[in-house]
Design brief:
With 706 residues, the chain is α+β, with helices and mostly antiparallel strands. The protein has an 8-stranded mixed beta sheet with strand order 13-16-17-11-12-15-14-18, with no helix packed on it. The chain has a 5-stranded mixed beta sheet with strand order 19-21-20-22-23, covered by helices on one side. A hairpin with a 2-residue loop joins strand 11 and strand 12.
Length: 706
């Protein structure tokens, strides 16, 4: 209707014109239905527009029985994929269907039953639509004294709208559910597609320019992409962002009210879409709606920091990652690059930019992949790649190779490891990629809120936060490349550099050992043993490469010949030896329960304090916190004295329930620590503890809860 041009009308004018057109069309259709409804029992109405774009037919669920509910179905079938129909409340534009049925005396039609609609936003106008074939069920109340002789000839007339994203045309059809319409319908499937009605009543209040809803929904119910479709016309701003919070077994929803709403409603109905075509129908009465709760989805700025603070948090968080324990293993790579820094200022700047590009591209790439997987329905979080045994095996091989390089066994051709030969921009870029990839297992101070908000922000803003995280991680090297005074503070190159390089093989070797342990945790001991066989073959091949390099001969073809049999063996042996769950968790001093929503709900309802922590074997920060603050005799004694219930969520391998819970808490990864004070009703708010625990932090809370 409105072509894209410099002279296109503003959004408010488009909204007004479309709303006026919809109102006019709706009024005309309803007036015509009112004029002709007295005659529908005596003569059939002729279709004026037909159903060329979306056809409609009436189908009955077998023969009716006296005193029982009889179900009719209105099936709408588009002629092409671009056509869509509308829910009863079409939204900012469109038209809901108008149906008139010719029923026997005493028979009555009940409320129409709809499947969960979809949203379609065009030029700022929200439409509530159905794409593809859809069915609306119409329950018919058959009187107990009805005399049914043969197939009842149920007729009627339906008027509706068929639209694409460019045009809308009116449609209508004469309905007949006689003998031809008794069979041929899949009523079992159609009933399953209808949004079931919640038994428990919901509550609503109008406050602060918002419609606030409290819908009873068990915590165990997953919400992948929630949206509320309000049946009351012109009550809310359909295109506004809706805010969802979880408060125990209630879902708290805030929806901005419409500027054109009329009188306050006495009741509210609608459909809560849970995502992926599932949802529930609800009815709400006036009542008190609780405040607070854990935010699940909503606009930035509601219970989340402003965007500029999230950007700053991502930048500072990335900078702090340079000194976090989870990144310490790659500091050896950075240290060697710093030590050998020299040459011209142009070379230093080029390498600083190349290293930064590698870090930022890796962070943005991992963030984009995570968002894409979540959009596809996968429950993944930050550092998801380390939940894959194959990825960890590759990292283990790389760590072993870098250790051998540091030890002087061979010269690595691309990654900047501080060897005598300069690798240039390519080596700096590869080092940046590796640094970012190894830095992802943990979330440090400042960056937790930013990564959590990235799960709710529009994709461009989310990717900007991931880029700022990478920039913070790369900032020391970028500063080194552009500030000559910093480079002059570095020690002068000399013979000591080779000794320093050999010393750096120790932390890198410890990293390799930690990855070997992690492989066993992910895939079991047999899996780790076969991985070690492959590593042995690769190290053997690298040793031969080093000898050939020292002799000045062609080296890398020999690597392929020696390593290939071991790699091929591993390709067949590793999948067959993989054990889901790996080696499992070891013994704990505080005897925690395994995390589940049911276990957490029962523990909170017990009236005792509850401590929940989420960890992973690949998260070094998690392990440091556990050794310093959690797995200690003093903590165990304090927990036992205060009756603290401990619950642990192990995220070493992918767990959709844990991922969903982390998202609800605004966390994109681990570690996450939650403390619940004891309460009689089990509704105490969770206190989210810092990601770096101190030895006294848990003991003090346990003492306070006694």
């Amino acid at each position: 209707m409105f072509a894209a041009s410099p002279f296109a009308p503003p959004a408010w004018l488009k909204a007004f014109v479309l709303a006026l057109a919809a109102f006019t069309l709706t009024s005309a259709v309803r007036a015509q239905a009112a004029e002709q409804s007295p005659e529908i029992h005596s003569q059939a109405r002729e279709a004026r527009y037909g159903g060329e774009n979306i056809s409609a037919e009436l189908i009955a669920d077998g023969m009716p029985r006296a005193g029982e509910e009889w179900m009719l179905a209105l099936r709408f079938t588009p002629s092409a994929p671009e056509w869509h129909g509308y829910w009863s409340n079409p939204g900012d534009a469109g038209l809901g269907m108008v149906v008139t049925l010719d029923l026997p005396d005493g028979w009555s039609a009940g409320e129409h039953l709809y499947p969960v609609p979809d949203t379609l936003l065009i030029s700022g106008l929200m439409n509530h639509i159905y794409e593809g074939q859809y069915v609306v069920l119409v329950p018919i109340a058959v009187p107990a004294d009805a005399v049914i002789e043969g197939v009842p000839q149920i007729g009627g007339f339906v008027e509706y709208l068929a639209c694409t994203d460019r045009i809308c045309v009116p449609q209508d059809a004469v309905l007949n559910a006689g003998q031809a319409g008794i069979s041929g319908g899949d009523f079992a499937r159609w009933r399953a597609e209808i949004a079931p009605r919640l038994d428990a009543a919901s509550q609503f209040e109008l406050s602060g320019g918002n419609l606030r809803l409290s819908i009873p929904l068990p915590e165990a119910v997953s919400l992948s992409n929630p949206h509320v479709f309000i049946a009351n016309l012109r009550l809310v701003d359909y295109a506004a962002v809706q805010t969802f919070r979880r408060a125990a077994d209630a879902l708290i929803i805030d929806i901005p009210l419409s500027e054109f709403r009329g009188d306050d409603p006495s009741s509210i109905g609608g459909i809560l879409s849970l995502g992926e075509g599932t949802g529930v129908e609800f009815g709400a009465l006036p009542g008190e709606v609780p405040t607070g709760g854990d935010m699940i989805a909503g606009p930035i700025g509601i219970d989340t920091p402003p965007l500029w603070t999230l950007i700053l948090g991502a930048l500072v968080g990335g900078l702090i990652l340079n000194i976090m324990p989870c990144v310490f293993p790659i500091l050896s790579l950075k240290a060697m690059a710093l030590v050998r820094a020299g040459g011209s200022e142009a070379e230093a700047r080029t390498e600083g930019i190349a290293y930064t590009a590698g870090v930022v591209i890796a962070c943005v790439g991992l963030g984009a992949l995570m968002l894409a997987l979540r959009a596809a329905g996968e429950q993944v979080g930050w550092a998801f790649q380390l939940q894959s045994p194959s990825v960890v095996v590759v990292l283990m091989v790389l760590a072993v190779a870098i250790t051998a390089n540091f030890a002087g066994v061979f010269e690595l051709p691309s990654i900047d490891t501080g060897s005598g030969a300069r690798k240039g921009a390519g080596g700096a870029f590869a080092t940046g990629l590796l640094a970012a990839f190894a830095a992802t297992p943990c979330t440090g101070p400042f960056m937790a809120a930013a990564l959590g908000a990235a799960l709710l922000l529009p994709t461009p803003l989310a990717l900007m936060l991931f880029a700022m995280l990478g920039l913070g991680l790369a900032l020391p090297f970028l500063a080194l490349g552009f500030v000559p005074a910093l480079r002059r503070m570095l020690p002068k190159p000399g013979a000591w550099m080779e000794t320093f390089r050999r010393i750096m093989a120790i932390p890198m070797g410890l990293t390799a050992l930690a990855l070997i342990w992690l492989v066993a945790q992910l895939g079991g001991r047999g899996f780790a043993l076969f991985a070690l066989v492959m590593v042995f073959g690769i190290v053997l091949a690298l040793g031969v490469v080093g000898r050939l390099q020292k002799a000045g001969k062609m080296a890398w073809p020999a690597f392929g010949l020696i390593a290939a049999p071991f790699v091929i063996f591993a390709a067949f042996a590793l999948p067959s030896s993989y054990e889901a769950g790996g080696a499992g968790r070891g013994e704990s001093l505080i005897s925690p329960q395994d995390f589940s929503r049911e276990a957490l709900a029962l523990s909170r309802a017990s009236g005792q304090p509850v401590f929940v922590w989420f960890t992973a074997d690949w998260c070094v920060t998690c392990k440091v916190n556990e050794s310093i603050a959690i797995e200690r005799e003093s903590t165990a004694a304090a927990f036992e004295e205060a009756g603290v219930i401990a619950i642990v969520g192990d995220w070493t391998v992918r767990d959709e329930e844990i991922t969903a819970f982390l998202t609800e808490q605004g966390a994109a990864g681990v570690p996450l620590y939650l403390w619940y004070e004891p309460s009689e009703d089990g509704r105490a708010e969770a206190e989210q503890l810092p990601q770096v625990l101190t030895p006294d932090m848990l003991r003090e809370r346990a003492a306070r809860a006694r």
